[in-house]
Protein 1
Amino acid sequence: MSWAGLFAVWAGSLALVAMALAVTRPNVVHALIWVVAGLLSLAAGFFALGAGFAGAVQILIYAGAIIAVFVFVVMTIDSGPEAIARERGWLGTGWKLPLALVVLVLAPAVFGLAATAGPGAPTPVSPVALGATLFGPWAVAVEAASAMLIAALLGARHLARRERAP
Amino acid sequence: MTASLAALLVLILSAVLLAALMVTAGVFTWAERRILGFMQERLGPNRVGPFGFLQWVADTVKLITKEDAPPAGADRPAYLLAPVLAALPILAGFGVVAFAPGWTIADLDMGVMFVMGMLALTVYALVLGAWASRNRYATLGGLRAAAQLLAYESFLGLSLMGVVLIAGSFNLGEIVAAQEGGRWFVLVQPLGCALFLIAGVAAAHRLPFDLQESEQDLVAGFMTEYSGMNFALFFLGEYLAVLLVASLAVTLFFGGWHGPLLPGPVWFGLKVAAIAFVFVWIRATLPRPRYDQLIGFAWKVALPLALVNLLVTGWIVVGGAA
């Protein structure tokens, strides 16, 4: 396997560990920081595999914006010792069975993917090629996604609307 | 073998760039205090070394030897992580900046997006520092920081996309190369440049966009509880962010390394210094806006303007190609 491939596997393993920690931390802000660490590891993996655009978007949109909004909300809720003790109680052993199921499903998929991977270094995808693919064969899917986003925007506008004083 | 040699070279270059950036940030703190002093009809630091030039060295020594005293109720891991997150992403962002033809650590396809992502990550330093301090002033500062940085990031990226469209590349080196012969993008993208500089001041959370640490009402906002080297790391992050935004502005709008007579890196440094000076000038001139005005401006004025700018640029580029 190439250096880039090895690095991608390393980054992917880090992402898995970080995400597992995110699930098992009793303190919600710590959990979110682990989610950010996981997303950044994934982005590093994308860069190593030559998918620069996916990596950059992962950092900019997911780590930089979406989780930042989560942190913004979480900051305002209580995370004192009582909240952490309560969370510990809920965590208990409840996460072990779902984790086992995920491993059961994912392990064959990972082995399957590893078997199909070619030997040499991965070929980088240029942003121009990516854009041509998105707005060429997949144009309808892109437009459908943007229509959904507009609908979400209008919905948010409606929910946030303040009643005018009579 | 050649691959590992290249990797070693990149490591050495990164170390050199890191040291250069630390010194530049230190000198910048001194320069800013002197310029602010002259603008406010006083002298500024002028005792250590010639013209007070070594003031930043004295400050560094003082900060290193100062005791760090986290509050008893603080969340230790998060409290210690926050200042590191303030400086590290900005340093990483410099990795893709093209100082001259070929003078770049990582010649990334996605240079512009990468720098934007690194600027976006600094929000965690502010928010985490505020949350971990368990201090009401800090929490207020953290809430302000999160809302402000999200609002200004939204049009920071969009204001740059006009340039990306015209240059046809996200690569910082290629964008500079497209401006050869005095065809600076500020001439064709004046609105994009203005919006970017406004967003840049906000992204570096400098006056007048520093409501998250505004001394008059929040003590020092998110970094109220910090002292010693942790405090210094926050400031290092802020000054490096100014330099990064200035480098980005020079690269995207002011022709990068292009210029007559002098060699490329010198031109780059001079232009970055000029923009950093404008940052200091703005700080000395403008008062802080009210918080609702600050957020309202970002979402209701700047974001639509950036979208219109992108739309019109798109029409012109597509029309020119057709």
Protein 2
Amino acid sequence: MALGVNPGLFLNNPSSFRPEEAGYRPAILGTIQLIGGVILIIVPLGISAATYLELFADRTRWYNRIIELNIQNLAGVPSIVFGILGLAFIVRGIFDLGFVVAAGSMTVAILVLPTVILASREAIRAVPSSLLDGALALGATRLQAVRKMVLPAAAPGMLTGVILAVARAIGEAAPLLLVGAATFVTFDPNFWDGGYSALPVMIYSYAGRPQEEFHVLAAAGVLVMLVVLFFINSIAVWLRARFERTW
Amino acid sequence: MSSSIQGARSRSEKNSLRAPSPRIGEKIVISLLFLASAISVGVTIAIVISLFAPLPGFFDYVSPWEFLTGTLWAPSFLDSSFGVLPLVAGTLQVVFYALLIGVPLGLGAAIYLSEYASTRVRKTIKPILEVLEGLPTVATGLFAVFWFKPLIQELTPWLEWTSPFSIGVAGITVGIIIIPLIASVSDDAMRSVPVALREGAYALGASKMRVAVKVVLPAAISGIVASFVLGASRAIGETMVVLLVAGGGSPQLKIGFTEPAGAMTAFIASRATGEIATGTIDYYSIFAVGSLLFVMTLTMNMIAIFFVSKFREVYD
Amino acid sequence: MEQAAKNEVFSLKDMSVHYGSSLAVDSVNLPIYENEITALIGPSGCGKSTVLRSLNRMNDLIPSAKVGGEVLYHGQDMYGSDVDPVQVRKVIGMVFQKPNPFPKSIYDNIAFGPQTLGMKGNMDEIVEGALKQAALWDDVKDRLKDNAFGMSGGQQQRLCIARAIAVKPDVILMDEPCSALDPISTFKIEDLMMELKKDYTIVIVTHNMQQAARVADRTAFFTVDTSRGEGSRVGTLVEHDETTKIFSNPSDERTLDYVTGKFG
């Protein structure tokens, strides 16, 4: 039995009337660039914020309580609202980037940032306080103790959080509809310039076409995405099991 | 005598408790960490500004009263009308069907996980729930369109299936999506109920089911309510499933399982695709609907956070 | 008479600790002398660990904790505004109840302190010196690169002592260092303490009265004062004296009841 995958699925550009020749090439490249940008933003910001909130913030201060409440809240804001934010502030408004991959990256990064922060905080909380105490008792400053002892111990957990956030970012379609991930891009994307597409948006677009063949194409796209996500999530689960430590 | 004074002096130098340097570098790094966490507040402010700033422009065309109480949503008609109730009705129907499915199944899963499952089973299921929670909804939506809706259609031949779209199927699909969320938040709540409370009931000879329902559920109730509220909030905000399964909807206010219906999120997503011209009423309407959506979910999140914190107060 | 000649490392004067609004320890007056082992004993909740943790400002880690009265270290007010808690912990080391080695190699466990503090000298020599002083060198010299978690509990605790010594402190505080260990490991650590007091001043909190009797030069007995109204449990210092006196002929009846096992 021939279970062949037509390489055109990955290599071809989209086509509006010839489903047998239509593919996901620009969408896949767009998603790869988009996710690259997301990682560059969420790793430093997410880990810094979690470190501050978990290890430095004095919880009796009103501004720290506001930040906490605010992050909890952001985690529950619908993704489409982040799309509106991206449209008004990043595509237009202050950043004025236009409909480019960078705008998509920033929007999706802001969307998944609360997830990264919450997961990283949990990873830090899982590190026993005796580690911090031990370092402090030797005369290390708090920052030294955190940097050399707590963060390395929390790193696998934080990495798991980042990976789960990336998995979420890959499948996010709604906000991208607003920040310009167009469905009919027949050229490879450039991070700062020109139009772009993304895998979930392309899938959505194919699904909406009347011809049956496009629906098959959409299903194939979903399959590709799910395989990628399965792979990524497996890494996260493996990491967690591998480094899980009972202190 | 003098030597003992000298000894004291050298000791006091060696054992000085003063900081050897002001550690300015550290203070800078900590300020940067603070800034990283403060960015989230900036994001919220930016969301509020981006949503609310265009509202005056919108309300130049449509009065707030007309927007909130009007029953005809027809932005692209020649004689356009901007009554948001048809969209709100669509959203509320999604929430209704989603909770109908998500609450019993999610709570059931939570009871199983916290009261019956072995540690090994829990350790397997929890990460799976986490992964399911993050599945792309465009995939779930397609699954519903191509497979789930025909199935339901076959199982319910007595319903009038005239449209390719159905708000009911959309709601049920969203319900499936929120099961992991409700299960994991409720499970956390039920597991933090002290063991002593359970043991007291077991000591009186109560069965496992009885203990779960009569002791653990009431004790964890505010955490469980929080999970329902979070589930509802997630259902309100769900976009892709509603867009794919319920369609664009009709401009009139309609209620019914098999009807196509618009929802707030789906409207925003469908309207904003491509290059929409700034300053037109079309453009403004996105922000008006978005503001309403934001206010609704914000309220529900606050309620959920309140319930969770109430729960923590009791048991932490 | 002899004591007057001794250097007071710590002088606690009317010292108290609050956690939030509740008083945990009240009016402690206690001198701690150089190159001696001072034991703090008493029933659970009597505040002995709280007092110990205020001697190197580890209490600062609990935001609601507040120290009143005076804690003098070589005459300096330890809670003065010009005092840096980090510097305090550099000079006054601490060993915890549960051995808490870092999840690193044996070598790195010792080297962490000196490296972090930027101490000069050959690191290999510093590590070797600290391990030797902690009587651990012969046990581990062939596996310095192994993870510290592979050691026995007693060895881990001695590693923690070696780690504290490596930064050359003036005082070592020990918070029930043997409570998680078997008797043989406990004796080894007690031997080590007797050895270390030649170079360091040691303050130890212990639940084990025999341990206090065996190692301590001076003993301070704390108890819980419940007489101050409904539900209040305030730790107070009953008396302090030479260990032999506390265990043979204490001045306070409550001390006698405790050391003879009538309560606690």
